[in-house]
């Protein structure tokens, strides 16, 4: 049996499978969103608090659904 820690890297991505494909997590941490969008922590939390970027909490930790972040980014590109 594979331990959870052995299955994922420090960013929450699954390690490569034997066939060379990489499965991405459906939910992103704030740090991942900040890196992907090249924004700072304050900007991320302002966007979440205002409802501009859909996010939810699990306990004290925020998560953003990858599809929601991509949809938000696509909408920004169309402006």
Architecture overview:
The chain is an alpha+beta fold. It is 43% helix and 13% strand. It has helices spanning 4-7, 30-37, 41-50, 66-77, and strands at residues 27-28, 56-58, 61-65. The model has no long low-confidence stretch (mean pLDDT 82).
Question: Which strand order spans the largest sheet, edge to edge or round the barrel?
Answer: 1-3-2
Secondary structure category = alpha+beta
- Label the overall shape: globular
The helix-strand sequence is HEHHEEH
Q: Can you give the mean pLDDT?
A: 82
Output the number of helix runs. Answer: 4
Point out poorly predicted stretches: none
Strand content: 5-15%
Terminal CA distance:
48 Å
How many strand segments?
3
Helix content: 40-55%
Largest sheet: 3 strands, antiparallel
Compute the gyration radius: what is it?
14 Å
């Amino acid at each position: 049996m594979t331990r959870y820690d052995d299955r994922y890297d420090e960013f929450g991505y699954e390690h490569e499978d034997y066939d060379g494909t990489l499965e991405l997590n459906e939910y992103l941490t704030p740090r991942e969103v900040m890196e992907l969008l090249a924004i700072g922590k304050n900007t991320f939390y302002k966007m979440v608090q205002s409802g501009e970027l859909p996010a939810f909490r699990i306990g004290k930790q925020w998560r953003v659904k990858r599809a929601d972040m991509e949809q938000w980014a696509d909408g920004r590109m169309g402006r």
